[in-house]
Design a protein that fits this description.
7-stranded parallel beta sheet; 9 helices
Length: 277
């Protein structure tokens, strides 16, 4: 299969790209800066694309390169994303707009630009054509101070379900994989997102922010676990359309069944004890 995978510079994206290549797939991997995919570029079946998912012209240019190669495009994996954290009361407008520009509007834009190639592959006889959106456990439940990230991932889940239902008549499957905490550099970035806390009524959260993110990372899964789930969804003929990948996923399933007030108490208690879920 020939696959477009966004955000391959590190973490889940880089690990997934490597696994796909090892399994004999061809990968077009997107990065924002030249050199971010040097290690992957050593593989003959990998092609790097300089692409910013929040820039429509950048996406069009990348898709045109795939089209010009003559390779059919069988799958798109929308992995590129950012996590903006902070109190909703104080977070900057530029930050919350960027959160949606990348995670939601960027995901949709990549789908829209790539779909003509996916339709072409399907019409030429390919029988396993898919879009896989990397969502998050935060698209299932909302923890305090990651509400914007959560909102963006709830939106990704909605886009996934809606697009799948619209594309069923055309034989293109649309799926989501929702990782819980994953041991990636995103947690180091989270520790530095203190701007919305400093000098506000939420400043007392700052001493707990480091231990909270460290505890979440320590309990997370390795990127290869998510990559293997993506590979399975990609290659399986009819996988379940949504897949949660996290340690202790049963706890989350129970939390989702509880009343909102009960969920409130659990999240506040977890925040005090430096637990995420």
């Amino acid at each position: 299969m020939t696959i477009l995978l966004t955000g391959v510079s590190s973490g889940i994206g880089a690990t997934t790209a490597q696994l796909l290549l090892e399994r004999g797939h061809r990968v077009w991997g997107s990065v924002r800066k030249a050199g971010d995919a040097d290690q992957l570029a050593l593989h003959p079946a990998f092609r790097a694309l300089i692409m910013d998912v929040s820039d429509r012209s950048s996406i069009k240019c990348a898709i045109n390169k795939i089209k010009a190669s003559g390779d059919p495009l069988h799958a798109v994996i929308n992995n590129a994303g950012i996590a903006v954290s902070g109190p909703l009361e104080t977070i900057a407008e530029a930050d919350y707009r960027k959160q949606f520009d990348v995670n939601v509007f960027g995901t949709l834009a990549v789908c829209q630009e790539a779909l003509p190639l996916l339709h072409a592959a399907r019409e030429s006889g390919a029988d396993n054509v898919k879009i896989i959106n990397v969502s998050s456990v935060s698209g299932y439940v909302t923890a305090p101070f990651t509400s914007l990230y959560s909102a963006s991932k709830f939106a990704v889940e909605a886009l996934t379900d809606g697009l799948r239902r619209e594309l069923i008549p055309f034989g293109i499957d649309v799926l989501s994989v929702a990782p819980g905490p994953v041991k990636t550099p995103i947690w180091q970035k989270a520790k530095t997102q203190t701007k919305a806390f400093i000098g506000t009524r939420y400043a007392d959260i700052l001493p707990r922010l480091g231990p909270y993110t460290e505890a979440a990372e320590a309990g997370g899964v390795e990127p290869i676990t998510v990559a293997e789930a993506i590979l399975d969804m990609l290659e399986r003929e009819q996988p379940r359309p949504d897949r949660l990948v996290m340690n202790g996923g049963w706890k989350l399933r129970i939390i989702r069944l509880l009343s909102k007030r009960r969920q409130d108490k659990i999240f506040l208690k977890n925040m005090v004890s430096n637990k995420r879920y």
